[in-house]
Write a structure and sequence with these properties.
This is TRAM domain-containing protein. The protein is mainly beta and 67 residues long. It is 0% helix and 48% strand. A 5-stranded antiparallel β-sheet has the order 4-3-2-1-5, with no helix packed on it.
């Protein structure tokens, strides 16, 4: 998210990039990586990506909140 320390919540609408393209979706879950403890979100995409991908794991700092 844009603000330091901001954590997305399940059901929140967000946008990010996938293979250089802007994509939008909904946060399904938020967790930490096992080794480094980085905050990541699983995002269900509104439309499948170029390779048919319907969800992706994204670092929270790479998400932008939608209104």
């Amino acid at each position: 998210m844009d603000e330091s320390g901001s954590r997305p919540v399940e059901g929140q609408r967000v946008r990010t990039t996938l293979d250089g393209a802007d994509v939008r979706g909904t946060v399904e879950s938020v967790t930490y990586t096992p080794k480094k403890g980085n905050l990541i979100a699983k995002v269900r995409l509104d439309e499948p990506g170029p390779d048919g991908q319907s969800a992706l794991a994204v670092a929270v700092e790479d998400l932008a909140e939608l209104d």
